[in-house]
Recover the amino acids of this structure.
């Protein structure tokens, strides 16, 4: 029988936004936890991905007393008009009726870096370069988490709960027995060429609908931005030399764009994925380990924070009151929120993509999408 080297209440597998937020919430509630992250601190703090938080996410961090983590090289989206270009004509994104108007543009690496600093400052236990992580005895009252530390030594942690926040490709979900989780997937039928550049975005977010396809440029800090170009799922990065990227972005924006170094590029098929239930035994899944949402929605980090708070409050309720009701309802609570956001993401993604290039889904869907697109932008101001 495996013997634990140490014990804690929660082992968090994965040191991204979901895992760090959960660890921070638990730490501030006096609940013991250990966060295991397979990558180095430098890698995690410089990993470029999502870049926005909705108003609920910003408000949540402030309510937990860590509103400082959204400060730094970020931008309150209420102070930054989001430009929407439709067939070369500039419009303003209509945020009046959206809660996200009080959200923030926060590059993921900035949020992660700030969460790490806050967690460690407050005495949190965060272990980088934890390799060969394995989860055992998840269906018992005392799960075990095995791993090798940065020196190569084998370690075993006994715990009451395991939080799987190690992403879509992580080990947590694969520890669930085959056939237990249902996977629900929606394929949009097109991809994004995602391009990291050393070119600042000005304004911070520009979205374009064009007959050649959707395009966007979103800030990733004061000296970087990510470019998105709609393309067929069969495209490869070899189909997109740097010159073509900048030329195509200018075509879809309807004006020449500032060019510069391209640091990475990837073709990403757009899809939505939801796993149900969001847990097994004493393992609870959160963030990308449990669901993927269309990047058009910019909801990935916000969903991760929502999961983290629901799980944190459930664990605190169990520890302080010996009441497992919130843990038992964790999956249903989170999935209700996930499906609501998935519905919104599908609607927005369809409107922004189908209203441009009709070659993917036909003229009928294009005209429907154009009608729906009216909900997302303000009418043009009449010219004198």
């Amino acid at each position: 029988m495996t013997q634990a080297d140490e014990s804690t209440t929660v082992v968090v597998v994965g040191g991204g936004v979901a895992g760090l937020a959960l660890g921070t919430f638990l730490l501030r509630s006096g609940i013991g936890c250990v966060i295991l992250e397979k990558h180095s601190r430098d890698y995690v703090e410089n990993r470029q991905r999502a870049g926005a938080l909705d108003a609920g996410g910003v408000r949540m961090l402030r309510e937990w007393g860590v509103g400082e983590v959204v400060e730094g090289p970020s931008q309150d989206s209420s102070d930054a008009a989001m430009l929407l270009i439709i067939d070369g004509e500039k419009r303003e994104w209509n945020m009046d009726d959206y809660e996200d108007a009080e959200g923030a543009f926060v590059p993921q690496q900035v949020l992660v870096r700030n969460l790490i600093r806050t967690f460690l400052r407050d005495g949190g236990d965060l272990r980088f370069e934890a390799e060969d992580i394995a989860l055992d005895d998840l269906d018992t009252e005392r799960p075990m988490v095995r791993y090798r530390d940065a020196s190569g030594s084998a370690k075993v942690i006994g715990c009451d709960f395991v939080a799987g926040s190690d992403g879509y490709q992580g080990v947590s979900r694969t520890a669930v027995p085959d056939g237990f989780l249902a996977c629900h997937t929606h394929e949009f039928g097109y991809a994004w060429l995602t391009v990291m550049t050393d070119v600042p975005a000005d304004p911070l977010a520009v979205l374009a609908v064009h007959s050649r396809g959707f395009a966007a440029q979103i800030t990733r800090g004061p000296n970087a931005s990510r470019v998105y170009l709609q393309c067929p799922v069969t495209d490869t990065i070899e189909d997109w030399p740097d010159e073509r990227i900048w030329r195509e972005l200018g075509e879809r924006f309807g004006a020449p764009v500032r060019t510069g170094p391209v640091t990475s590029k990837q073709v990403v098929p757009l899809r939505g994925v939801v796993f149900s239930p969001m847990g097994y035994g004493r393992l609870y899944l959160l963030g990308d380990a449990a669901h993927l949402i269309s990047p058009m929605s910019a909801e990935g980090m916000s969903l991760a924070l929502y999961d983290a708070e629901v799980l944190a409050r459930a664990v605190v309720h169990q520890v302080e009151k010996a009441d497992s009701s919130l843990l038992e309802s964790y999956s249903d609570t989170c999935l209700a929120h996930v499906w609501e956001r998935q519905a919104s993401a599908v609607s927005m993604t369809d409107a922004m993509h189908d209203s441009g290039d009709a070659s993917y889904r036909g003229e009928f869907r294009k005209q429907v999408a154009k009608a729906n697109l009216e909900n997302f932008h303000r009418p043009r101001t009449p010219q004198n």
